[in-house]
Amino acid sequence: MILAQVVNGLAWGMILGLLALGLTVIFGMMNIINFAHGAIYALSIYLAYTLVYLVKIPLLSSFWGSLIIVPFVVGLGGLLMERYLIRPMLKVKHEYQLLLTFSVLLILQETIAIVWGTMPKPFNCPKSLTGVMNLGFMIYPTYRLFCIGMTIVIALCLWFFLEKTKYGSIIRAGIEDPEMTLCLGINISAVRNLIFGLGISLAAFGGVLSAPITGTLSPLMGMTHLITCFVIIAIGGLGSFTGAIAGGILIGILKSIMIMIEPKASELVMFVAMAVILFVRPRGLFGRR
Amino acid sequence: MVMKKRVTNMFLLVALGVISISGFFLASMDQAFGQSEDTVYLACIDDFSGPFASSGKAYLQGIQLALKDAGYKVLGKKIELVTRDTELKPPVGVRRLREVVQKYHPFFVFQSESSSVGLAMEQEALNLKTPIFIEGFATQITGDECNRYTFRWDASNYAGARSGLAAFLKLHPKVKSFYAIVDNNASGKSMLEEQEAILSSHGGKILKTTFTPLGNADYSSHLTEALSLNPDALIFNNYGTGNMNVSKQIHEFGISKKIPVLGGFGGLDMLRGMPPEAPEGIFYGVNWWHTVDNDWTKNFVSKFKKEYGEVPSYISASGYIGAWLVLQTAEKVKSLKAKDLIIGLEQFGSFEGPSGMETLQPWDHQVVHPFILGKGKAVKDKKDSDDYLDVVGSAAVYPNTSLETSACKFKTKDEEL
């Protein structure tokens, strides 16, 4: 039974880790706490819902089409958000940035409620991935296993991009020493713009990927996951994408096991874990600062 | 410069004064004209925003249809329906009730799903001596916190949980062990207590109960554990989005194909929020279902579809029947006074209602009607998009079956109404 819970915790934790990735990339590299992350996640799911169920565009009106197009479109929105909302606020106090991203969160939530209404909406699992697989010691939904694989692929791609490519080196240099990077003739504003767009795009990808399992669509759905994502990046280390995935897995497994022991404490356990880890290692499991 | 500023300030003060006076004047005019002797008021003070917004809308639609059927008239007077949003907050509900009663003196008020808002408004309705229909599930609404001004059509937690499980056990007599997933709130727990009582008399037991936060998104760990414990059946007492999510994930894990599953409280609004294949094979307890085979239902569904272009949920049926009962009583007693309406309703007895023959119990003001058990249909068997359930059973296990055993003890005498 414990092994089954560990596998389930791993699957759910990886999905949470994927959702936290975008948040940690933006925070770690731009030092901005993006409260709008949860609403962007919700907006992405609603856009995917529109594409899959409400409009008929050849090739795009499917789950797979939305998994590609929505992160791209929302990522473009992220570039605009950084250029016209975030960038003018970079020189002011952190509090103003918090207020700004919080107001974007509220605006997006209300916009979702106005455009799509407050009635909950379903989001189906793609037909090719419905059903369960027998793992020998347990049966498990095929789509959740797919999500584990997809999260691993995304995390590896992101790691490769940031650690092994020229653009990744520029981004990291821009974060470590912006002035020196500027002296080398690199457009630091463009780097920041790209990072923000990437972070937003990751939130959108995580949203669409998790839509068939994370629940029924409602305008406030992003808020629950936003809190969990903050806990995960605090545990994993602010700005560390390895930490985001590891934090997600840890939270997923702890919650799963706690449900066996004391279900009422399953929500509490993640906050206790965060407190303990921050007490022992204030920068989180993989944090550098 | 100073002079100019003073003039500007003076102008502002005068303008404000004029606006205030004209606003007051217009409000008084509105009240004076609005409350002509030929107009009487009903009020629907309900949750029109937040998580229960869809329930509020459905309930209002039911009331409006009943009023339309009556030509928006009672005793020859024009009925105007006043609406206010409780925002799902008990203090707001109480404030709105007070405001509406003071301004419009409605002869009846209606409020639907939220028990916490309903319980708060119930006490205020007593203070304001205004009769009210409250449709929350809390057993105490027509139980130990009842009062003579409050009526209810919806089944309480007691009635819903016991009736639903009784009908379920009739279909699955060999089922003895359950795994229970329950909303961690008063309603979920109260349903669980009632179900445990029924189970113990059946010789069954709950292997494990797991409490989940309201509107929880992920139930996979609970379902993984349920599969490991190998129970005979699974029961879930989750409402709203929690009900949708758990149903969806039960289907995802293939549990409803392995063991019988019972959702304590279901409804069309929740079923519409799930992927169409999710409810397949799951049993749901529902107050009413639009395919119940009786004349009232056929007539109501047809009228509702014509008016709103969709199939009604039990919440709309509840709104309709509540308003219909009030209007019928008013015509019968030829009065809109609270005292006459209350006594009239207490003497109403049995009538043809949404679930067949129904009875309004005079000693607790609860309408007793069969609670329906439906089984989720396979997508290929559905006749239309709202054809989610097959009605497979019903039961009516209510508390307060007689004046003597009733937990509801009215303290207000006829002459004090």
Care to describe what's here?
The complex is a heterodimer of chains A (289) and B (417). With 289 residues, chain A is mostly helical. Chain A has a domain at 23-220. In chain A, 73% of the residues lie in helices and 2% in strands. Chain A has helices spanning 2-30, 37-54, 63-86, 94-116, 142-164, 166-176, 178-183, 188-214, 221-236, 241-261, 268-280; strands at residues 132-134, 139-141. A two-stranded antiparallel sheet of chain A has the order 1-2. In chain A, strand 1 (132-134) and strand 2 (139-141) form a beta hairpin. In chain A, helix 2 runs parallel beside helix 4. The termini of chain A are far apart. Chain B is an alpha/beta fold and 417 residues long. Chain B has 2 domains: 39-155 and 294-368, Response regulator (Rossmann fold); 158-292 and 371-395, Response regulator (Rossmann fold). Chain B contains 13 helices and 16 strands. Chain B has helices at residues 2-34, 53-69, 90-104, 115-128, 157-171, 186-202, 220-229, 241-252, 255-258, 268-272, 295-308, 314-333, 338-346, and strands at 39-46, 73-74, 77-85, 108-111, 132-134, 150-151, 177-183, 205-212, 233-237, 261-263, 282-286, 350-353, 356-360, 367-368, 371-376, 389-395. In chain B, the strands form 3 sheets. Chain B has a 7-stranded mixed β-sheet with strand order 8-7-9-10-11-15-16, sandwiched between helices. Chain B has a 6-stranded mixed β-sheet with strand order 2-3-1-4-5-6, with helices on both faces. A 3-stranded antiparallel β-sheet of chain B has the order 12-13-14. In chain B, strand 4 (108-111), helix 4 and strand 5 form a beta-alpha-beta unit.
